């Protein structure tokens, strides 16, 4: 095993429930994340040799490894998030599948399995060591793989001073999965030339384009009367929600889009005949298309409201983050370095847009260009999540290559 502590470290991390909570008003959104940072990450950061280790009010655990070669003058950051997505994260019990043989993998006794016919990417991992769930929880590779890889790289550099490197800053933050983790990121405290989020998926991912993102909450105001005498009197709020949804382009949904295609994603719907609401996320890559999607929602509401004497469809829009390409393409140095390092390691860079976002989306606009590098996770956010140990090892290799790049 190339990095003996990598797997052990990862298994310790994923067994800690750090699920975030979008309904919370605190930062971090859950106390579990605070405990994970203060009780596990901070002591380990100090133990492996990071300096100036501290925990910030924004929920980030931060530390520095000074340069050991004065000719390497860059300051480079590596960032990963502590929280996991909105799926059961209590009692994570990972399975280790050594020398994967290409057959279906039973996920504990849950009755679920990872089957190559459903998940053909499994065919890329023959002969490798896979870590899976037991079918009752997510795994948490998103993004505890990234944390484990960054920690392991630092540990390796401290143990091998012959490997020359620039100054390195690491940051482990909260609440990425609910889209607010980087809102209070302290750029001045982090103080680097550029950074990378270790938060990507399969081997070779190198990403500097993300969606621009907005959230929409639509309130539908109905009027409830007895259904037996409802003609020309009842206004069913649920029906308004259905009509609104049906007015959106049928093909512009996550399950029908890929590549650079944007979408509207219905996330939640609830209420009664009297009052209902729907929540959506809106995603697109190009600024004009992003703005057009938001305007379409407003236009649909305006058209529907013309039928009533008072507005009954109320749209509230909130921008979440923007495509970081606009920032990073001004200076492609972070991409050029990472691409060169991967190629030198025999890894084919996969430079494709992120159909999502990372903390780097916000941090880039705050002043630190922060593209995204693979961390290894597949099928993230659910019971079918898995990660390859060999891919995680390759991520450590890439970190080491970046910080020693002339």
UniProtKB/TrEMBL annotation:
Record's Pfam families? M20_dimer, Peptidase_M20
Name where it's found: Cytoplasm
Residues of the Peptidase M20 dimerisation domain: 208-307
Active-site annotation:
83, 176
Q: Which SUPFAM superfamilies match?
A: Bacterial exopeptidase dimerisation domain (SSF55031), Zn-dependent exopeptidases (SSF53187)
Principal place of residence: cytoplasm
Q: How is the cofactor bound?
A: Binds 2 Zn(2+) ions per subunit.
The UniProt record gives the binding positions of Zn(2+) 2 as: 142, 177, 381
What Enzyme Commission number(s) does the record list for this chain? 3.4.11.4
What is one process in the GO biological process aspect for this record?
peptide catabolic process
Any single Gene Ontology cellular-component annotation: cytosol
Residues reported to bind Zn(2+) 1:
81, 142, 199
Write out the GO MF terms: metallopeptidase activity; tripeptide aminopeptidase activity; zinc ion binding
- Which InterPro entries does the UniProt record give? ArgE/DapE_CS, Bact_exopeptidase_dim_dom, Peptidase_M20, Peptidase_M20_dimer, Peptidase_M20B
Which cofactors, by name? Zn(2+)
The UniProt catalytic activity note for this protein reads:
Release of the N-terminal residue from a tripeptide
Keywords from UniProt, A to Z, are:
Aminopeptidase, Cytoplasm, Hydrolase, Metal-binding, Metalloprotease, Protease, Zinc
- What enzyme class is recorded for this protein? hydrolase
PANTHER family in the record: PEPTIDASE T (PTHR42994:SF1)
Function noted in UniProt: Cleaves the N-terminal amino acid of tripeptides.
The family note in this entry says: Belongs to the peptidase M20B family.
User: Which named protein is this?
Assistant: Peptidase T
Q: Which organism is it from?
A: Streptococcus azizii
Q: State the organism's lineage.
A: Bacteria, Bacillati, Bacillota, Bacilli, Lactobacillales
């Amino acid at each position: 095993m190339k990095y003996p502590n990598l797997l052990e470290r990862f298994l310790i991390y994923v067994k800690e429930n750090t699920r975030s909570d979008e309904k919370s008003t605190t930062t971090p959104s859950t106390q579990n994340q605070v405990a994970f940072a203060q009780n596990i990450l901070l002591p380990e950061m100090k133990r492996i040799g990071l300096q100036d280790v501290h925990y910030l009010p924004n929920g980030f655990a931060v530390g520095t490894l000074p340069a050991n070669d004065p000719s390497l003058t860059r300051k480079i950051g590596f960032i990963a998030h502590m929280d996991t997505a909105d799926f059961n994260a209590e009692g994570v019990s990972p399975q280790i599948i050594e020398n994967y043989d290409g057959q279906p993998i039973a996920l504990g006794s849950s009755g679920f399995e990872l089957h190559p016919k459903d998940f053909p990417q499994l065919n890329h991992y023959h002969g490798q060591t896979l870590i899976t769930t037991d079918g009752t929880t997510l795994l948490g590779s998103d993004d505890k793989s990234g944390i484990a890889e960054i920690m392991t790289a630092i540990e390796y550099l401290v143990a091998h001073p012959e490997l020359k490197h620039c100054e390195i800053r690491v940051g482990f933050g909260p609440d990425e999965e609910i889209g607010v983790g980087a809102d209070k990121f302290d750029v001045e405290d982090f103080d680097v030339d550029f950074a990378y989020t270790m938060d990507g998926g399969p081997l070779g991912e190198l990403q500097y384009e993300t969606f621009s993102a907005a959230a929409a909450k639509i309130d539908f105001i109905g009027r409830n009367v007895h259904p037996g005498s409802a003609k020309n009197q009842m206004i069913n709020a649920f029906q308004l929600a259905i009509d609104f949804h049906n007015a959106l382009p049928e093909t512009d949904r996550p399950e029908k889009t890929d590549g650079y295609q944007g979408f509207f994603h219905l996330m939640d719907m609830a209420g009664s005949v009297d009052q209902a609401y729907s929540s959506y996320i809106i995603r697109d890559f190009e600024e004009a298309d992003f703005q057009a999607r938001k305007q379409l929602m407003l236009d649909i509401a305006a058209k529907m409201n013309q039928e009533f004497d008072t507005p009954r469809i109320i749209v509230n829009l909130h921008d979440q983050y923007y495509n970081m390409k606009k920032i990073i393409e001004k200076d492609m140095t972070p991409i050029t370095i990472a691409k060169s390092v991967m190629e030198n390691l025999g890894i084919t860079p996969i430079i494709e847009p992120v159909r999502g976002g990372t903390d780097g989306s916000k941090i880039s606009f705050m002043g630190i260009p922060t593209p995204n590098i693979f961390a290894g996770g597949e099928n993230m956010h659910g019971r079918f999540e898995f990660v390859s140990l060999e891919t995680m090892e390759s991520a450590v290799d890439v970190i080491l290559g970046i910080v020693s790049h002339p």
